[in-house]
């Protein structure tokens, strides 16, 4: 399935569905898969569609070529410096659309796994940090290099600071240096490092495990995880307890607990 393609251009995003797993592939390799206006629109549309698709249990986000994503399209953005407001309205609009797309990932009922080969820089690194899980080939590298060009990676900082410790996040943001895959795993930016070229396969393996669980339970859990993280400790426990009460009353929890006690495989209905 191709999203947002023009008759004279390749699609920005490729989608392939199999076994409850939707794989979205950034498809602008020659220009380093930037989060351009077109790519943001394609991603936003894809996530909006997937959010209401009960057949999709997990999403994998991958990229074609040697660069996962170089982040914002600086040529596209710089062209608007000629606007009467020096680009202020355009910058606000495109950054707002990018932030909205990132929040779509967090709000998506299905978990999203980044499969990273090559480099993920600036907003491309933000995209990896925003995904629920991330797998990297051992040649992958990560960077928030804005500090080198006078543009601090403030929006990538939001996702980074929610994945990494404060010291690690600030190290990436202040130094702007490339972080190799094994270091990114130590920092908490990625979950697994595998031999180069095997990230998509490992992402599919993890996705298959998740897809075997109750989709209703996964949806409840993902939403509660991000909600409680923004709360105080007491409020988080109150919220999580209320969520667990509702979860206990769900049909899949009754089935799962019953199957566990009866030593049989559960049959999920997604409710």
TrEMBL record:
MF terms (GO), sorted A to Z: hydro-lyase activity
Signal peptide: none
CDD domains: crotonase-like (cd06558)
Gene Ontology biological process terms from the UniProt entry: fatty acid metabolic process
Pfam families the UniProt entry points to: ECH_1
Keywords, sorted A to Z: Fatty acid metabolism, Lipid metabolism, Lyase, Transit peptide
DNA-binding is among the record's keywords: no
Role of this protein: May play a role in fatty acid biosynthesis and insulin sensitivity.
Protein family (similarity comment): Belongs to the enoyl-CoA hydratase/isomerase family.
Protein name: Enoyl-CoA hydratase domain-containing protein 3, mitochondrial
């Amino acid at each position: 399935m191709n999203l947002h393609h023009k008759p004279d251009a390749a699609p920005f995003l490729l989608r392939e569905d199999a076994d409850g797993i939707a794989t979205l592939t950034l498809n602008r390799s020659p220009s380093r898969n930037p989060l351009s206006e077109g790519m943001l629109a394609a991603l936003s549309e894809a996530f909006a569609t997937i959010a209401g698709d009960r057949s999709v249990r997990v999403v994998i986000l991958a990229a074609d070529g040697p660069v996962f994503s170089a982040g914002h399209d600086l040529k596209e953005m710089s062209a608007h410096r000629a606007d009467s407001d020096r680009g202020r309205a355009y910058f606000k609009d495109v950054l707002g659309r990018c932030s909205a797309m990132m929040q779509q990932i967090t709000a998506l009922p299905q978990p999203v796994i980044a499969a990273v080969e090559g480099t993920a820089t600036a907003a491309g690194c933000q995209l990896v940090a925003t995904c629920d899980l991330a797998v990297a080939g051992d040649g992958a590298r990560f960077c928030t290099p804005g500090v080198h060009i006078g543009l601090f990676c403030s929006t990538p900082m939001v996702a980074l600071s929610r994945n990494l410790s404060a010291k690690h996040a600030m190290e990436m943001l202040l130094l702007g240096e490339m972080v190799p895959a094994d270091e990114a795993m130590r920092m908490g930016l990625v979950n697994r490092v595998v031999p180069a070229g095997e990230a998509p396969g490992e992402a599919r393996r993890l996705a298959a495990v998740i897809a075997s669980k109750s989709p209703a339970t996964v949806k409840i859990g993902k939403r509660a995880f991000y909600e409680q993280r923004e709360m105080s400790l007491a409020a988080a426990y109150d919220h999580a307890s209320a969520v667990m009460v509702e979860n206990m009353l769900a049909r899949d929890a009754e089935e799962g607990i019953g199957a566990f006690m009866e030593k049989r495989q559960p049959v999920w209905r997604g409710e």
